Amino acid sequence: MKVRVHVSLKPGVLDPQGRAVHHALEGLGFAGVHEVRVGRTIELEADEGTSDALLTEMCEKLLANTVIENYRIERVAA
Amino acid sequence: MKVRVHVSLKPGVLDPQGRAVHHALEGLGFAGVHEVRVGRTIELEADEGTSDALLTEMCEKLLANTVIENYRIERVAA
Q1: In chain A, positions 14-33, which contact chain B (CB-CB < 8 Å)?
Q2: Rounded distance between C-alpha atoms, residue A44 and residue A53, angstroms
Q3: Is the dihedral of CA A76, B35, B59, A37 positive or negative?
Q4: Which distant-in-sequence residues (6+ apart) come within 8 Å of B63 by Cβ?
Q5: Nearest CA in chain B to A23
Q6: What are the backbone angles phi and psi of residue A48, rounded to the nearest 5°?
Q7: What is the pLDDT of residues B19-66, one digit of tens each?
Q8: pLDDT tens profile A12-57
Q9: Using CB atoms, which residue from B8, B43, B58 is nearest to A39?
Q10: What ranges do the domains of chain A cover?
Q11: Dihedral through CA B20, CA A2, CA B45, CA B15, nearest 10?
């Protein structure tokens, strides 16, 4: 079973990496971009029947820093 | 207009970050995970009517390293 965990910075949290990408886009001449934020996606190949509760626990304990990050769990159809 | 660019390592490319996450999950007692791969998501707030061609150019030139990474452009409904 494939599971994707999307982790993104909470609104209001400064994102220097996003800033840097934005700045680089402008430097390359791409003018129509107003904001850039960078998150990460963790793709897990997990046992069939892995419960939502277990996935949530993985996120809370390791995959996301819940002080500054939000996460979203997505089960991907095989 | 919000655009998400999903960047992931191509199959076969070694992913040490994914390995580390997998190892850490096992260390925490999560046994049912077989593989972990880590990618990133770049969220752009762009002008309405930014073309697919322009977004593709951003990916090719800056956002993804196309030698080792795949990317997927997703327009997010407002």
Answers
A1: 18, 21, 24-25, 28, 30, 32-33
A2: 15
A3: positive
A4: A21, B5, B7, B42, B71
A5: B62
A6: -55, 140
A7: 999 999 999 999 999 999 999 999 999 999 899 999 999 999 999 999
A8: 999 999 999 999 999 999 999 999 999 999 999 999 989 999 999 9
A9: B43
A10: 2-76
A11: 30
Burial of A1 (0-12, 13-18, 19+ CB in 10 A): middle
The answer to whether B61 contacts A21, with C-beta atoms less than 8 Å apart, is no
Fold of B2-76: Mth169; Chain: A , (3.30.1280)
Report the distance separating Cα A65 and Cα A74, nearest Å: 18
Residues in chain A: 78
Q: Side chain identity at B74, as an amino acid letter? A: E
Separation of first and last alpha carbons in chain B:
7
